[in-house]
Amino acid sequence: MLEIIDLVKKYDSGPLALDGVNLKIEAGDIIALIGPSGAGKSTLVRCINRLVEPTSGKIMLNGVDISSLNKKELREARKNIGMIFQEYALVERLSVMENVLSGRLASVSFWQSLRRNFPQKYISEALSLLDRVGLGDYVDTRADQLSGGQRQRVGIARALLQKPDLLLLDEPTASLDPKTARQIMRLVVDLVQEKNISAIINIHEVKLAELFTKRIVGLREGRIVYDEEAAKLDTDA
Ligand code: ADP
Ligand code: ADP
């Protein structure tokens, strides 16, 4: 469902951030992307939805080359790609529900003009997702009142409301304490399986990757240095 072919990214300065990455992911796959800081994990994940513009290569999602789309086409294609960030990227002064719904819109100001007659269908779906992620009692709470784990749960609900085929998670647990990090990984892995979507989780804690994902891809200096079933990894390494 996702095939990355010879992906190269060169920023204005520095060496190649991605140096010819090839990666294939089937529907329902969850992969953990690991590697040292600066390896290119974040760049790779962000190239897939073009938050970072690739220098060359192809990103085929369900047969469409994401890297060749114009702005309008890209906006459509991005509905199919959910993104979850390390620092949650919530709008602090909006409620949990508003944050979840705003994921469907191009901008918060657009959302504010629409909020009074937002389609009921999305509100019902958002409520059921908020229940599922354990925030049923926090629908009207402002984002700035939430703990880190709760914030990430909002981020997850917001991403899933789009019904994406692919979920990109850029260090989703890096700002959380170890226990909360494990709870969030468990939730993500369960939801991805429940909804049969694919996920790429950029994560630097190897232990978490091994605990929760079956396939681990290692990146170093912009190149894939291994791609293994987690069980086959040498855990002492
Ligand atoms: P991480 O290691 O979690 O990816 P970084 O601290 O490397 O985070 O990067 C934080 C932000 O700074 C990102 O938005 C990244 O794109 C940007 N950044 C990283 N390295 C450079 C650089 N050499 N020049 C300019 N911006 C950079
Ligand atoms: P990781 O996520 O594995 O820490 P990154 O993708 O953040 O790696 O960074 C890969 C390389 O690209 C690093 O050398 C980093 O400094 C560089 N880089 C990242 N973002 C930028 C940016 N916005 N401008 C310039 N260089 C960047």
What does this structure look like?
Strand 4 and strand 5 (64-65) form a beta hairpin. The chain is 34% helix and 25% strand. The chain contains eight helices and ten strands. The relative contact order is 0.20. With 237 residues, the chain is of the alpha/beta class. The chain has helices at 41-48, 71-78, 96-102, 108-114, 120-132, 148-161, 178-194, 206-212, and strands spanning 2-10, 16-25, 30-34, 56-61, 64-65, 81-85, 166-170, 198-202, 215-220, 223-229.
Gyration radius (Cα, Å) is 18 Å
> How many DSSP helices?
8
Strand content: 25-35%
The unique ligands bound to this protein are: adenosine-5'-diphosphate
Report the sheet with the most strands, covering strand number, pairing sense and barrel closure: 6 strands, mixed
Please, what is the average pLDDT? 90
Structural class, judged by helices and strands?
alpha/beta
Indicate the overall shape: globular
Read across the widest sheet, the strand sequence of neighbours is: 6-7-8-3-9-10
| First-residue to last-residue Cα separation | 31 Å
Contiguous low-pLDDT stretches (5 residues minimum) are none
Helix and strand succession?
A: EEEHEEHEHHHHEHEHEE
What percent of residues adopt helix (DSSP H or I)?
Answer: 25-40%
Q: Count the E strands.
A: 10
Q: Summed up, what is this model?
A:
The protein has 237 residues and is α/β, with parallel strands linked by helices.
Core attributes:
237 residues, alpha/beta, six-stranded mixed sheet, four-stranded antiparallel sheet, 8 helices, 10 strands, binds adenosine-5'-diphosphate
